[in-house]
Design goal:
The protein is an alpha+beta fold. It has one domain. Helices cover 32% and strands 22% of the residues.
Length: 116
Amino acid sequence: MTVAIAALCDGGKACVVAADRQITAAVGLEFEHPASKIETLGGCAVVSAGDALLAAQVIERSGEKLAGSSHDARRVSDTLRETYMALHIERVERGTGGLREPVRIRPRPSCRGPRS
């Protein structure tokens, strides 16, 4: 489970952000990692939760769209949302539903349904 918290201070001119370092991979594997979950994107702090590989792709693609310049929080959050949705649609169209190859499920003989 990701722990992340942020608080505005100094009359909204500054922000304090904290996050744990536990990473979750697409296969459900969880482990502590030395890298921070807090990224800077368009002058805003971004904290990810869930699938770390997916989050990295969303942040990387969003960074390309924002081209490294500073933006307001609304523009950054809109870009992150749009990028996430586009990536999700790509994955669905590929038929993977995730970052892995499709899983082929073959029923065992005892699971084929009622016998006639």
